[in-house]
Each structure stands twice: as C-alpha cells, then as structure tokens.
Amino acid sequence: MKIPSRSHVHRLSYVVVLxxxxxxxxxxxxxxxxxxxxxxxxxxxISVNGFPCKPASEVTxxxxxxxxxxxxxxxxNIFGSNVTGGNVLTFPALNTxxxxxxxxDFAPGGVxxxxxxxxxxxxxxxxxxxxxVGFVTTGNVYHSKVLTAGQMFVIPRGLVHFQKNVGVRKxxxxxxxxxQLPGAVVLPFTLFASTxxxxxxxxxxxxxxxxxxxxxxxxxxxx
Length: 223
Fold this sequence. Notes:
Blueprint: H1 6-26, E1 81-86, E2 100-106, E3 111-116, E4 122-128, E5 130-136, E6 142-148, E7 152-155, E8 160-165, E9 171-177, E10 185-186, H2 187-192, H3 200-207, H4 211-221
Helix pairs in contact: 3-4
C-alpha cells in the first residue's frame, strides 16, 4: 500500500481547514471577551460593528437597568400601533450581548404593518388583548394564528410578518430578539417612502397597478 507523503498530507489538511473556516465563522455570534461592554455612543469618530465600550471606571449600576418599556406608546398614527425599542440605542448595556426587546402597543384595530428583522429571530408574548400574528416563508406560505394573553409566537429571522389587534380593546406585546439591534424593514415605508424614492414605473410593474395608484400611496407617507 502506498503511504501518502508528508507534504501531501499537509496540503490536504490546509484544504480541509479552508473549507471549514466559513462554517466556523458563521456558526454563531462570537462570545463576549469581558463581563460587559456598555456602549459608548459618544465615540462618534470610531467605527466598529457595534459600539466601543465605555471605560469600566465610568460604568454605574444605572447602566444595567432600563424602564423604557414601562411606558405605553402613542398609537394615534396611521397604523394604530407603536413600537418602543429596548435595544442598544436606548439601553447601551446590551452592547455585545446579542439580545434586545420591544414593546408594541395597539389601539383597537391597530396593525404593526408587514416588516422583517434582517438581523434577528423574534419571539413574543401577548400581554393583553387579542392579536392576529402572521408571517410568510420564503416558499410563499402564510402561517398565522389569533393569540390571547399569555400565548407566544416566534418569527424566524428575516421573514416578513405582522401583528393586528383583532379585539375590541387595546393590546400589548413584548417581543425579544437575539440581536442587540435587530433592524426593521417596514415594507410600506421601504417601498413607498424611501429616499430617494423607488421609481414609479418599477412599483407599477411590480404591483401591476396604474401609476396614479402608486402616487396615491406615496402621498400617504410623505412628510
């Protein structure tokens, strides 16, 4: 039996390592290298994937507590809903920890319009009210269910989803994300209120409607 040469084995090892490197780098978020890294949002001259850390000597107990989700959001808008974010922008102690939460308030009939979170899976619990929760898969399959207080839902990362208050009273959801800043692509604003705007002829072809329909929708989102 022919025994492979040492150089051949080394070359084969290099190939295996090169093949595995992408899998290792994308398998999970990296673990934190310190107990915490409270975001220093004043360091505007530094650009990193996240925020630099506030010096530990400047960190106080108050940095680790946030009461922003205790306040009911104003739902007097075109959608009848309000999202209050508890992410790294409002709660800097979440920096590098890979978690965040939202509070979503709904007026009767209010909707959290179709949107997606490009950087996170979402799980949520209905605190009060009656909500229709739905999402669409990449295979164009629609999943939905009406939930009441105490029931949970999960939305896989990046999928378009919505919530609608189908009850007669106000509703409230608390949602959690596996990202310090999950991002939100809100389809009505993305498609009809971007800057600069998407050309009308693109939208008329995409939605198979007349240009006046597109202009009418855009006018509803103009400031």
